[in-house]
Structure formats: structure tokens, C-alpha cells
Amino acid sequence: MDVMGDKATLFESGRFVQPPGEEPTRDDVTDMGDAAEEVRLGLAAQSGDAEAASVLGAILLRRGDLDGAEPRLRAATAAGDRAAANNLGVLLHQRGYPEDAAGWWRIAAVAGSAAAAHALGRYHRERGDEPAAEYWLRQSAEQGHALGAYALADLLEHRGDVGAEHWMRAAAERGHREAAYRLARALDRTSGPEEGAGPDNAVTEAEQWYRQAAARGHRRAALHLGAILEKRGELKEAGRWYLTSAKDGEARAACALGFLLRDAGDTESAAVWWLRAAQDGDGNAANALGALHAERGETQTAERWYRAALDAGDDNGAYNLGLLCAEQGRTAQAEQWYRRAAYAGHREAANALAILLLQGSDTTGAEPWFSKAAEAGSVDAAFNLGILYAGRGTGPDAEMALRWYERAAAAGHTEAALQVGIARLREGDEQEAERHLRCAAGGGSAEAAYRLATLLDARRPPEPAHELGEIVHEKTECEEWYERAATQGHRRAQVRVGMLAAARGDVVEAARWYREAAEAGSRNGAFNLGLLLAREGSEPEAAVWWTRAADAGHGRAALRLALVYARRGELAEGQRWAHRAVALGPAEVAERAGRLRDALREELSA
């Protein structure tokens, strides 16, 4: 009977002491049966039954009764029982006699005991004799022993031998949970599927091994399985595995569970798990607690947790302390914390430090930190470098600005894509300009949507005019982009959407957009709204909007007001607005307003 295994297996009896006065339970009855079996084995062993002596010795060894087990195991070993020889080695190893143990393991291994071969292989590896270790571990693994296969895989992996994966897989297939976990991790590292690609075979297999290891109680496997499921959107099952792992003491799982609960709106439960993880030394959880208290305005508690994160080795703690100090106006302390995180390689801290220095007019000090952050992959820093170089003028600096803008745009930075689009428009490269403007507009930039619309607008052929009131429902792509910009509050886009609606004959829609632009401060919107109202016979209301436009510097609105007051007979007021129109321009407006002003002057002096 082969009982070689780890100490947890050997010592785990599963029996409990019965308190006095209680009736025996089913388990207790089983224990009584075991006791009777031990008596039977003892009698058989005394009569010379080697197998009974071996089994009884194994039972006593598992119980921890080394003194009782040793004579039985020695007797069975003397009779040629290989399991007894293996277990005698285990007993001697526990007593602190590894050399004697190895001797008995060798006897059992030569006799064909896979467990003894495994133990002997580990003995040789611990003493640095890797060739002997490999020999005996291979003997054990080839006999189907899971522990032997795992130990052989571990040895081969340490040496960089390609055969390691085969034996790790063999151990995993035989139920070794650590082997299953390590195999999954190896598959994870080597798969590297491209983002957006379909299910990858290696990833699928990795998940299967994580599941096997997690089902056998491997807490880190449960953590990784939860992460895979969370990424795939299967949040309920991910939460179950995180919970399993967290209850087994995995701080990272407790932290991940906290984020899952927070995203589900259960902040209080999230805080409980973050607290548990932070107390176990998880810096990420400490940062999450700090952020939670900062949101509540509890800055002192937030600072305490950020410091705890920093003490746990998480550089985000220093960065968050910098943010906290900056929000409170403690610039010197913010710079200190940003520097600490930046020197530790925190790219966003380097970017924040550069911004702080730039705000203090230290351009020379800011630039290298922007560069360091950008080279480390900070998209915001790359964009900020573009701004820095663009502010220095044309020539090489402009080229450098465009290079950094392009780098940030390639990483999905909306405003950087807009700047590249504008630069390409200046160069006349409409194709590249359109590509970048589409990216920026798709990312939510109202200015990019407007500029893209104007680019498309300039290409389309002229459409036949429509009478006001005659509505045409078809919209072009450029109008859709104008509308997207307009709905985001872009005033010029709002005016343009109003003009296009008016051209289609949709007076109500045109008035709505003109009014929205005018109320947001657009003088063109106010002027066009006035024109629309005047055509509809609402000249008094039109004059109100023209006045707003003229006060904002719109020359045509001033000329319209001069004509309105002249028709009303309010010549002095008409002359005043005509004089204002001359000053505002443009040239053709100034010329017409000048003639009107002179005529009104003559009329007034007559």
C-alpha cells in the first residue's frame, strides 16, 4: 500500500474528539469501526502478516504516532513490502534522518514504488544533485505519479528544458492543482491574442486549467479565472470566483471583488473587501479606499490610506497623494509626491509633475518629464509635448509638435487627432486630414466633427434651392456631422445646421438651431435668426436679435438695424447704427452703411 505524499496528506486524519456525555454520531461509529480494524491489523501483524503490519504502520504514521508506526514498518520492510520501505523513509525523514530515509526510499524505488522515487528525487534535488534528481523523478513520473511528474516539470523548467511543459501537463491531467495553475499561467504568457480577435485556443485551454486548479481549491487560479470572466463580461461568475479566492486569503481577489461591487453600485460592500485586502498588504486596495474617502471629502483618512498604499510598495500611493495635495492647493507637497512617484517610474506622475512645473513657468524643467512620461507610454504626456513644441513656433519645433500629436493620436487621443487633422488640412493633404478628423470626431470632439463636416461640405455639388416651407427630409453625411457637433454645443455648427435646414425649407428647425446658437453667444446665430424672423414678418423681434448681434460686433446686423430705424423714421438712431456698421465692416457693408449714414445726415440737417 503506497501512502507516500506531502505532510498535509499524511497528517490529515479528519477525526474529531467526542466531548463527554454526547451520543456517538455516524462519524464516531466509523471511528469505532476504524479502531476495530486497527485491532484486527495489530493481531494479524503479530502473527507475521507483513501486509497488515505495513497498513497499520501507515495508519499510525498518518496519525503522527511515529513510535508506534516504526516497528510495524520495519517489520513489514524486512518482509519485502515496498510501501512499508517508502513509509519508513517518510518516518525517518520526519525524525530528522534524511540520509537514512533516502536509503529506504532507494530500496522502495528500485522495487517499483513511484512515491519513493519521487521522494528520492526531491532528496537529491535539495542537495544539488540534479542528474540524480532527474533520474528518480523521471522514474516516478513515467509510472504515472502526479507529484513525480510535477517535480520533474519544475526541475526541467528551472533548467529551461523544453520537456517541462509535457510533464507539467501530465501532472495537471492527473489532478495536480499547482501543475494545472502553472500550465495555465504558461499558456497565458505565450498566447498573447490580439485585441478584438476571436477566441484563442491557448486562452481557452488556459481557462480550462484555471478552472481545474480553482475547483481543487487553488486560490490564485480562482483569482485569474475571475479576471478572465470579468474581462469577458461574465461578472456574476467572476464575482463567485473572486469571493472563493478572497475567502481563502488572496488579497488581490478581495481587491478585485471590491471593484466589481463598486461598479455594481454597492460601495459599502466594496469598502469591506478593500479594507480586508488593504489590511493584508494590498496597495491597490489601499488606494481604492483612499479614493473612496477622498470622494467623500474625508481627506485625512484618504491621505492615511494613500500612505498605506505607498508603504505596501504601490507607487500609485505617492501619485494619489500628489493629486490630493494639488486639489488642496498644497503645491509644494504635490510636487514632492509627484517627484517621488515619477522617479519610481510612474508615467502619469511624471506628466502631472511636468504640468505643475509648466504652470510655474518652468518650461525647461517640464520638458524632460513630459518626454519621460511620453516615452513610457503616457498618451497625455505625448499630447502635452505636442502643445509645448507647437507653442514655440514654426520650423523644426512645429515638426516635433506634429510628431508627438501623431503619436498621441495613434493611441486614441481625441484632441491630438484633431490637431493632426488641422495640420494636414493646412498642408493640403485632405485624405489624411479626413482620416484624423474622423477619429477625433468619433472620439467625441465637437470641433473635429465641425471641421470634418466643412471638409465634406466643400466637396459636395451644389443642390437646387428650395422655397421656405418646402421640407426635404434627406440629409447628407456632412449635415449629420454638423448636427453631431451642434448637439455638443458647437456654435458655428449650430448656425450651419440652421442654414442647411433653412435651405431645405425647414423654417422651424432652422429657427431652433439659430436660437440655440444665439443664446450661447453666437453673433451669426443671432443675425440669421433675425433674418428668419424678418422674413416671417416678425421685424420687431428680429431687431432684438440684430441688436444682440451688432453689440457683439456683427457689421451686417448693425446695417440691418440702421435700415429698420430709417424706415421707421427714427433717423438719428438709424444714423447711429449706420455709423456703427461702417466701423465694424466688412468692406462692402462699410460702403453701403457709409452711403446710408451720409443720406441720413443730409435728411437730418435739411
Q: Can you walk me through this structure?
A:
- With 606 residues, this protein is an all-alpha fold.
- It is 77% helix and 0% strand.
- The protein contains 35 helices and no strands.
- Helix 8 packs antiparallel against helix 9, helix 11 packs antiparallel against helix 12 and helix 16 crosses helix 17.
- It is elongated, with a radius of gyration of 41 Å.
- The termini are far apart.
- The N terminus is likely disordered.
Give the oligomeric state of the chains in this entry, treating copies of one chain as homo and distinct chains as hetero: single chain
Principal-axis shape: elongated
User: Helicity range of the residues?
Assistant: over 70%
Alpha plus pi helix count: 35
Q: Please mark out the parts with pLDDT under 50 across 5 or more consecutive residues, or reply none.
A: 1-30, 193-199, 466-471
Q: What distance lies between the first and last C-alpha atoms, to the nearest angstrom? A: 131 Å
Number of strands: 0
Radius of gyration: 41 Å
Taking the sheet with the most strands, its summary is: none
